[in-house]
Amino acid sequence: MKKEIRLNAFAMNCVAHQSPGLWTHPRDRTACYNRLPYWLDLARTLERGRFDGLFLADVLGVYDVFGGSPDAALRNATQTPANEPLLLVPAMAAVTEHLGFGVTSNLSYEPPYPFARRMSTLDHLTEGRIGWNVVTGYLDSAARGAGKDKQTAHDDRYDVADEYMDVVYKLWEGSWEDDAVLRDRARSRFVDPAKVHRVQHQGNNYRLDAIHLSEPSPQRTPVLYQAGTSPRGRQFAAQHAECVFISGPSAKIIAPRVSAIRALAAAAGRNPAEILMFSMMTIVLGRTEAEAKAKYADYRSHINPEGALTLMSGWTGVDFSTYDLDQEVRHVENDAGRTAMDNITRADPDRIWTVREVAQHVGIGGIGPVIVGTPEKVADDIEAWFDQTDVDGLNVPFAVSPGDFEDITEMLVPELTRRGRYKRAYRHGTLREKLFGDGRARLAAPHPAAQYRPKTK
Predict the structure, then answer these.
(1) Exposed e or buried b for every residue in 152-169, given b needs 16+ CB within 10 A?
(2) What is 132-173 written as a DSSP string?
């Protein structure tokens, strides 16, 4: 039996997100990113399409590597300006019943104590539909905004992240027993203090002596996403992640990353099949092949090469303004993200990328593949992609929003459903239960979060 195809919409609380320049398209509404109606309409569309979730990216800091200045990012709305993603979630949850929300938050600049409360609050308000995309950042501009000279070294950030996870697990899982909240009107007792426990932590990076401020939420620990596939990122994912977001331009690049993470998970004592792998893929649909190709050509006419290279410079820490457009891109190692540079240098030794090719590729949908065609042709391509990579789902960015998501909902979802590859209805329960099955609202052993639960008699 073939895997059910899962879909996340991939967006960010900014203009254009992964397709700089496409905000100028007459059908695009992302310039209204700072108004609730845009997000409420998007959430309703995604629920109508039975998307598993909306994966909200975020980045702290400005993309100022290109040209050594934020000017190109500002000029081209290259993920700047960008608003806080968490504040969108309660509003979208209020107009949907099932849609999940995977929200990116950078632990490098978030003290764990208030962050744990913020996520518990979202889990309560969404009735258990919240997930956290765990990131450590890649921009020096973010570090400077937080009062540091530069960001912590790449692998060291993951060492800090391991300890951060221990702290939030203790708060979410260990501070309150399941039956601590009484809500006993007759005796005027809301909480049994004997069942609320102080969390004490003394580590290399964090100290804590406090109780968690929130009562237990439906999932306690939110569904955990992770998006780094460097060697150290894979190790972190194998230990902590439930869903892993992998980006890359071809199946040749994605497939070994999927198998590497599954192997590491098995070595850590986890069931590798229970780490869901999502790869990025942009989808451009038409009722006919000619219509789809014309739409894609129209989209490409709006690509902003400078905006695309501004994105790539931020992701890699390499100033692409200093390269000639026909120059070959060579590998550089630094403390920015490792995966984006690997995608265009070492991951596929059979392909050589020029700067011009990078700008054109990244200009629509970032570094992932772009699939163009009728619903039948795109469904064929997706099925082949699943067979070649062993992924469990797609993180779908847009060229034009919400139009591309409307097309997927109205054209692709019915075709995938007809083939028996897509759910006919949402499962009930929390986001974790929707992803992993009934009765799975909370993390279970051997996941490291489970060890922090109070031992009850």
Answers:
(1) bebeebbbbbeebbbbbb
(2) EEEE----HHHHHHTT-SSPPPHHHHHHHHHHHHHHHHIIII
pLDDT tens digit string along 216-263? 999 999 999 998 778 888 899 999 999 999 988 899 989 999 999 999
Q: How many CB atoms neighbour CB 86 within 10 A? A: 20
**Are residues 299 and 52 in contact, defined by beta-carbon separation less than 8 angstroms?**
no
The percentage of residues in the chain with a pLDDT greater than 90, rounded to a whole number, is: 80
* CB-based burial, 252-279: b 16+ in 10 Å, e otherwise: ebbbebbebbbebbeeeebebebbbbbb
Task: Please confirm whether the linkage preceding 249 is cis (ω < 30° from 0).
Answer: no
DSSP conformational letter for 261: H
Average pLDDT of the chain to the nearest whole number: 93
- The one-letter amino acid code at 105 reads S
Q: Which residues contact 338 (CB under 8 A, 6 or more apart)?
A: 154, 228, 230, 233
Q: Report the alpha-carbon distance of residue 281 to residue 338 in Å, rounded.
A: 20
Show the domains of the chain with their CATH numbers.
6-151+210-306+368-450 (3.20.20.30)
Sign of the torsion angle spanned by Cα atoms 55, 144, 362, 306: positive
The length of the chain, given as a count of residues: 457
Q: Which amino acid is at 122?
A: L
Q: What is the DSSP letter of 207?
A: E
Please give the Cα distance from 354 to 344 (Å, whole number): 9
For 253-312, write each residue's pLDDT tens digit.
899 999 999 999 999 999 998 899 999 999 999 999 999 999 999 999 999 999 999 998
Angle at the Cα of 193 from the Cα atoms of 191 and 196, rounded to 5 degrees: 95
Sign of CA dihedral 256, 257, 262, 265: positive
Burial of 321 (0-12, 13-18, 19+ CB in 10 A): middle
- Beta strand 100-106 pairing with 393-396: unpaired
Contact 324, 278 (CB under 8 A): no
Contacts of 226 (CB under 8 A, 6+ apart): 133, 134, 135, 233, 236, 237, 240, 241, 243, 244, 245
Q: Is the CB of residue 276 less than 8 Å from the CB of residue 265?
A: no
pLDDT in tens, 22-43: 999 999 999 999 999 999 999 9
Q: Are 276 and 6 in contact (CB under 8 A)?
A: yes
Q: What is the DSSP letter of 28?
A: -
How do beta strands 100-106 and 53-57 pair?
parallel
